[in-house]
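Please review this pair:
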Amino acid sequence: MKAKLLLSVLALAATSAFAQYPSRAVTLVVGFAPGGGTDTVARVVQRPLGERLGQQVVVDNKPGAGGNIATDMTAKSAPDGQLVMLANVGSLTVAPHLVKDLPYNPLRDLAPVSMGVIFPNLVVVHASVPANSLAEFIKLAKENPGKYTYGSSGIGGAGHLAGELLKMMASIDIVHVPFKGGGPAMQAMLGGQIHAYMATPVAAGPHVRAGKAKALATTGPQRDPLTPDVPTVAESGYPGYQATNWYAFVVAGRTPRAIVERLNRDIVATLKDPQVIGLLRKQGVEPQPGTPEELAKFMKSEYETWGRVVKEAKIQVQ
């Protein structure tokens, strides 16, 4: 009898909480400084999402440790849906394999809400590199082990992992050169200090069109709309290759299902808004709203994929 009464009280409390949700402004946490890719996406969805929720959405930047600080904060936040995080591939699926004693488990301590956006990298090389296709570049790398270099925006980032996966699948020896951000890496490639760079289509596009760099392949599962003439790595002889950047909406792991479903409904509607789609595509990212179950399945798959890459490539935080 007591057990039934307790369950009834809990159910009533959950129903009451959902009926009042959101009861105040919703915080949308970003694990990076203003001006970056994640922050830009958050600010595009901020106002239209708030209109659907019926409360203001406030973007809160909590930079540090590649997004891990903000992710840990989200995992430990009150499970009431008032704090939502737009998290990235690194803190959700890579950090657990790189960071010893990470204070959160993304698959256990976070509740998936919806995928946000997804976008590939481009394999670009300096104009002087004698290769006009990925196959030609890989041939050069095989003929000259250790000679060719590729840059990324940092160790453990999406670009670094995309390069390591290519090295593994193509059985080539190219040297990774990490930089403190995408800007310095791009400038190094344009200046000829490195041969190749895993760049975003938006960042690389102007330099490719100007003839300062050559785009050899895109790392996504299909060709990117911004570079429709550039084949995928999979098309170029490595079926199954996929290394995408993505940002997803998550909340604390104990958040009631009713609140997760409400958030999912409004986030999905926001990401399907034609104006939002247009603004996001101008940034080179593709909205990819989905169900919590789809995101959970995708996170688990990415977790396993990048865990294997980190282990086999012996990637370490320096």
In short: The chain has two domains: 23-119+245-312, 122-218. The chain has twelve helices and eleven strands. Residues 292-312 form the longest helix (21 residues).
